[in-house]
Amino acid sequence: MDLSELQAIRREKVEAFRASGVEPYALRSERTHTTLEAIRAFETREAVADGADDPEPPIVVVGRIVGFRHMGKTVFAHVEDGAGRLQLYARKDELGADEYADLLKLYDLGDFVQASGQLFRTRTGEISLRVAEIRMLSKALNAPPEKWHGLQDVEIRYRQRYVDLMANPEVRRVFEMRARTITATRRFLDARGYIEVETPTLQPLYGGAAARPFTTHHNALNQTFYLRIADELYLKRLLVGGFERVYEICKDFRNEGIDRNHSPEFTMLEFYEAYSDYQGMMELVEAMIAEVTRDVLGCSTIEVGDRTVDVTPPWTRRSMRDAIRDLSRVDYVAHPDQPSLLAAARAAGADIEADTVWPRIVDELLKQFVRPRLIEPTLLIDYPVALSPLAKRKADDPTHVERFQPFVGGVELGNSFTELNDPIDQLARFQEQQRDRDAGDDEAMPIDADFITALMYGMPPTGGVGIGIDRLVMLLAGQPTLRDVILFPAMRALPSTSDEGVDSHRE
Questions:
Q1: Residue 359 falls within a domain, yes or no?
Q2: I need a surface site. Which of 233, 235, 243, 394 has the fewest CB within 10 A?
């Protein structure tokens, strides 16, 4: 590996440590307190000591050096761990001349260190560790980003998320929020009697959504497999088998474009409840998003641009047909064939390709005219049968199904049906999907004969929901794109593998 000038200098320091008998990548470390625990323990002792002169007990902290300066015979440094940061105060006469010289010459910003000593307050009032001993835990060869400007390059932020997390504490907070969102979601469903299950990621036949799959080959079985686009059909099989409330939080994969709301690899929550329907699921989704929001944000409101949105139930409910008709002036029911609907949609200003099949035109009308305007929490209900091959028809309108999608802040958060459990009707829907595939819709679902067999054993009346975890986190965290809430998003390969390191000078 070719090293830059700064990397080469740091590499020489690695060898200097080893020449002195010190391993700069320590086998083990010790810690008695996190930085936050140390500060709180000191403040507690201050509060109860009442002027007593009892010596402060020695402690050991570890962390990355994020600040470094020296004044005469004193070094001031800040170390940061996962809990916070603490100032180190090292004096030459207390640390020793040789150790102090090594601290000045061999330690840099970005290094991980272990320091022991006693806590005190400096003249400026900052709680600090008076260093009695310091040792190297891990020597960094790359310097961290410059302190005041942080990491600004968007490409590097996504490609080298480790640098992004190091340089931007607010990014770490986003992913801590993501973890809390998933935990709160699990807690909500567990409390209602749902059990968490796992279904295959590699599937011999994909289904459960309208999407192109990623394809792979299983050598041992000499068979084509697909990365799942959804886990819906497997979860429904579990209801056939006797489970009544199941959920899964998993990775799904769709071989599609990348934009602010789409990623080829994403995290999906799906849950199914026997003896429920889309009305019951509406109430459950409203309650879940409201409770998760309170758990994560401490309140029931979300900031969307310059607007404050309250997710407290009940939400607005509006039919898909009315929403599209009101906002685009196109009534898809009045245009039952593809040429007529295409002409009407284009006349309204929609950007739609000529070979788009009828259900996709309806979906484009929704995406282009309706979704961006659904800022307040809204449940869009009752979709055309052709757009919903896995949902049960409405009793009073067999051209539409019992389906809804939740929208907040112009973001589509998920999808829900009263699940179709008639095997003959389901087979007919699959066959209609096959006709759409033959007509050029490469996102239409293939016929899953085994799923039809499962339904023939009987599936109880069921309500099901899918929620995009990434989109929910994006909304809660106020982030503009999914890439900002996915730790390592998919990126186009670079033309070369040259070093992308970020260098800076120690201050």
A1: no
A2: 243
Q: How far apart are alpha carbons 225 and 214 in whole angstroms?
A: 9
Q: Is position 295 within any domain?
A: yes
- What's the domain count of the chain? 2
Burial of 68 per CB tally in 10 Å (0-12, 13-18, 19+):
buried
Residue 452 burial class via C-beta count within 10 angstroms: exposed 0-12, middle 13-18, buried 19 and up? middle
- Joined tokens for residue 337: 């064939």
pLDDT digits (tens, 9 = 90+) for 112-159: 999 999 999 999 999 999 999 999 999 999 998 875 455 667 778 888
Q: Where are the beta strands (DSSP E) in 367-497?
A: 378-384, 393-394, 397-408, 411-412, 414-418, 462-468
C-alpha 179/C-alpha 167 separation (Å) is: 20
DSSP one-letter string for 426-444: HHHHHHHHHHHHHTT-TTS
179 and 127 both lie in a single domain = no
Same domain, 135 and 79: yes
Q: Write the single-letter amino acid at 250.
A: C
pLDDT at 83 over 80: yes
Are the C-beta atoms of residues 253 and 214 closer than 8 Å to each other?
Answer: yes
